[in-house]
């Protein structure tokens, strides 16, 4: 099939390359000429494991190209909208300006029988509005809502082998035709037996935010337990293991620590609350306010713990922060708990050095006042305390004996509960963690 993908960020770039891998003929469109240039040369404009290989493989087939010219979508039958929906400045709601621009830009190029597929995470009601406007504009195209659930760091795998595929389609013959076209787009994963849920617009839009709200709630639940563990001397990692053995609960997403960040969970739960308020259903989601505040408290707790191990004051103390990305295997620093802790520590008078295997360039751009080092060893040179903020594999595998030779004081705060306390203590370190004795 001939496919266009509008918006080539974390979502669209991977989606475009994956669609070409599935055998489709794909054009990716983005307003950012530098991004288009990189993608056109099979270079990923951000760090995502497996993406460079997928881009190269798809480019070699001649089925994948990128452009800044939206008119090049003409000839494609299916048009995916993959633009971002960031949080509005100073408000909880989602900013739909990129969705608006993509939709309005696409309209004049649509033909009869085309399918416009919304993938961006939007406030429920957006699809209905766009479908109406599409009908009013009259090109004979149909809108479908097909949310995306990919995780950064696993985006290629999640796109090619998703846990499920969801379409929200309009009722009647128009909806059936559009469904048949999407079935063709996703023929390979559907043949592999990936579950398909076909539903209405409202449900399809809600599925995405409901899934993210559940994941955020799971993380904040275990972080609330971490607070109780700290108050009682219990160990939240053993607690998570024990409750996680119950299949109804499950161990995944029960890792207590610095909490969630990134471009999705924080802004999605806020936009969800804002939309519920507009719908007069704010009470239904008032618990998400608590989920958000438990999450934000983790960052404060991390700074407090650092202060505690520095005998009550961090003024003038040297601190190494391991990690800048919001999670490992990503260079994304949006709402990064690691950088928020680093900035807070610096604001409170500490001398902070941040390191990260992939995210330093992005961090430097957004937080130019912080100091950066290329490696953990360099960052930790002569410091009073080391903070592990993002659980990259290379930080999990740090040798406490070796690192102990470069620091001034052997003190580490494990913000992700990934180090072995016994090994670090045996090497002479004071080991502290969130939610562990
Ligand atoms: C998330 C959803 O998982 C994905 O389905 C959706 O499409 C987009 O949002 P992502 O933002 O890439 O994906 O990251 P995710 O792996 O969900 O992690 C989010 C944050 O939660 C990270 O900061 C991570 O460190 C934190 N986290 C995750 C925890 O603190 N504890 C956990 O147990 C799991």
From TrEMBL:
Keywords: NAD, Oxidoreductase. The keyword Oxidoreductase applies. The active site is at 264 (nucleophile). One of its GO terms (biological process) is UDP-glucuronate biosynthetic process. NAD(+) binds at residues 30, 35, 85, 121, 152, 267, 334. It catalyses: UDP-alpha-D-glucose + 2 NAD(+) + H2O = UDP-alpha-D-glucuronate + 2 NADH + 3 H(+). Residues 320-421 form the UDP-glucose/GDP-mannose dehydrogenase C-terminal domain. Belongs to the UDP-glucose/GDP-mannose dehydrogenase family. This is UDP-glucose 6-dehydrogenase. It comes from Cellulomonas fimi. The lineage of its organism: Bacteria, Bacillati, Actinomycetota, Actinomycetes, Micrococcales.
């Amino acid at each position: 099939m001939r496919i266009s993908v509008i918006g080539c960020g974390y979502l669209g770039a991977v989606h475009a390359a994956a669609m070409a891998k599935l055998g489709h003929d794909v054009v990716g469109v983005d307003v950012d000429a530098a991004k288009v240039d990189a993608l056109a040369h099979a270079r990923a404009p951000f760090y995502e494991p497996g993406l460079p290989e997928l881009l190269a493989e798809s480019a070699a087939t001649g089925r994948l190209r990128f452009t800044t010219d939206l008119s090049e979508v003409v000839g494609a039958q299916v048009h995916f909208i993959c633009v971002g929906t960031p949080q509005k400045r100073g408000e909880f709601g989602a900013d739909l300006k990129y969705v608006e621009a993509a939709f309005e830009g696409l309209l004049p190029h649509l033909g009869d029988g085309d399918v416009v597929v919304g993938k961006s995470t939007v406030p429920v009601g957006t699809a209905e509005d766009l479908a109406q406007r599409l009908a009013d504009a009259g090109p004979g195209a149909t809108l479908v809502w097909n949310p995306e659930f990919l995780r950064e760091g696993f985006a290629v795998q999640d796109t090619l082998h998703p846990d499920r595929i969801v379409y929200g389609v309009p009722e009647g013959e128009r909806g059936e035709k559009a469904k048949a076209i999407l079935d063709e787009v996703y023929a390979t994963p559907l043949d592999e037996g990936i579950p398909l849920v076909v539903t209405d617009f409202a449900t399809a839009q809600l599925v995405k935010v409901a899934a993210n709200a559940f994941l955020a709630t799971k993380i904040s639940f275990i972080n609330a337990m971490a607070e109780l563990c700290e108050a009682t001397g219990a160990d939240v990692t053993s607690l998570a293991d024990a409750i996680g053995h119950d299949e109804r609960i499950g161990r995944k997403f029960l890792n207590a620590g610095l909490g969630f960040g990134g471009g999705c969970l924080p802004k999605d739960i806020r936009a969800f609350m804002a939309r519920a308020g507009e719908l007069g259903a704010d009470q239904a989601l008032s618990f998400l306010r608590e989920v958000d505040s438990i999450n934000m408290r983790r960052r404060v707790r991390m700074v407090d713990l650092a202060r505690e191990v520095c005998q009550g004051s961090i003024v003038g103390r040297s601190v190494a922060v391991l990690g800048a990305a919001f999670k490992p295997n990503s260079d994304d620093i949006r709402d990064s708990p690691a950088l928020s802790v680093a900035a807070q520590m610096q604001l409170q008078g500490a001398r902070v050095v941040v390191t990260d295997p992939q995210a330093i360039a992005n961090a430097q751009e957004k937080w130019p006042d912080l100091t950066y080092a290329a490696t953990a060893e360099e960052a930790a040179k002569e410091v009073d305390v080391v903070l592990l903020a993002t659980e990259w594999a290379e930080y999990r595998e740090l040798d406490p004996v070796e690192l102990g030779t470069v620091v001034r004081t052997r003190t580490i705060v494990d913000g992700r509960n990934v180090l072995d306390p016994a090994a670090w203590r045996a090497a002479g370190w004071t080991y502290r963690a969130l939610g562990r004795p």
